Amino acid sequence: MAAVVVAAALGLGFAACGSDAGSAGSSDTEAARTDTSPAPIGGASALPDADLASIVHMREEEKLARDVYIALGDQWELAIFDNIANAEVQHMDAVATLLDRYDIADPAGATAPGEFTDPDLQVLYDELIEQGSTSLIDALTVGATIEDLDIADLRSSVTSATDVQAVWDSLERGSRNHLRAFTAQLEQRGESYLPQYISQADYDDILASGTETGRTS
To answer: How many domains does the structure of the chain reveal?
Structure first.
């Protein structure tokens, strides 16, 4: 079946586990293993256009998170960026399983680090790199912002397709862990993060709970 190129666009966002700076928790590893059941008959036609667009967008969104963290890790040489960049690779792989299953063209398959087929994501990447290069505090704030927006985007992409939702649930769990990690790094330096996309109540609930683990199937 010919690959399906999805033209529908969702809002800008990021996806992204461990709650400390030294490790990315086990839920990232599990995300890459999420739901390996056979592809349903019908390929891309088995999903509504909104779900297809969401899968395409989340693939590049995870790449954006990975590429930003690699670039900031190279500049600031802080372990949290390298660790969470590795977790984002696993998140990219989890979304790639959906691309393969539903025979959808991969928007990130032939792009170099820092390059995106979505022009809005390209602009956003450039802006985040500029902001994160200003100071370490700004770099950590960029990390928290990415995870904040990722959580909001994943929650807005709820679907009735159980396999797709299983991946989104796993990625959101990872993003909550990443948000805790970046917030902890900021607090160690006497700074705080003000949520921009999720509510203050949701943010407080995330920080009040511990590192999340577990496998979604």
So the answer is: 1
